[in-house]
Amino acid sequence: MGRFVFKVAEDMETWRLDCCVGTFADSLSRSYIQKLIRNGDVLVNGETAKSGYRVRAEDEISLELPGSVEPDIQAEDIPLDILYEDKDVIVVNKPKGMVVHPAAGHYSGTLVNALLYHCGTELSGINGVMRPGIVHRIDKDTTGSVIVCKNDAAHNCLAAQLKEHSVNRRYHAICYGVLKEEEGVIDKPIGRHPVERKKMAVNVANGKRAVTHYRVLERFEKYTYVECVLETGRTHQIRVHMASIGHPILGDELYAPGRKTAFALEGQCLHAKVLGFVHPSSGEYIETDAPLPDYFTHLLEILKKG
Question: In 142-276, which residue ranges form alpha helices assigned H by DSSP?
Fold first, then answer.
């Protein structure tokens, strides 16, 4: 049997157990996950629970996959675009299409595989063998800055900063439509979509407070280039918030289904550009700026030409 253990992140609190497991084991169908839960193969803090159990932050969830092989996450020689590195932390500019960490059924080609090759054993172990060093994530098709911790002390320090919303996270995006205002604030709670488990939604009843600040960088005929600053850090926050005001991110097939575009894109045009944090050892403020990826700059050039 393969056994996977993970802790519930703060922004997953109040999710259904089956939905929560589904985000870490996205290769498994919801019905199969529910079967595992019924069979007692999913435990919450060592105890069985029902599929509809509402998880709490820091709950420890263990998943047993009958007949599977114990995961052996291998180091892989995958090039890394390193923006900053010292003995405590490393900030990487993640490319489009790369998953941050392995999950059930998806064990190779991730950022973690690349980090294991680059850092060896120098990664924090708080999140277990599947997510060594990982203190936060960005989506597979979102590019840009990800901070990774090399020891547990650094991990705890950065996790606290993320929880306090004191990490400076600035994203650049191209969205559908032309925004009229120069800047604005979207303050709408975000929670799990009531029907589609892989989606988030503005959810007044069960969502958590989510705040995104945006400002226009440049307007085009049918699109707007914007900067978004996260005050909170909910799953898919920028994507959900921009869609909620009628300006979903260009290329976002999950939150802008059916939107037509003349561009051949793979996923949303969203880039984690600036990442600023207080260094866990020195106490100094560190800020990195990830250059826009080539596809993004090329798209901007096309839009500027009309």
Answer: 152-163, 237-244
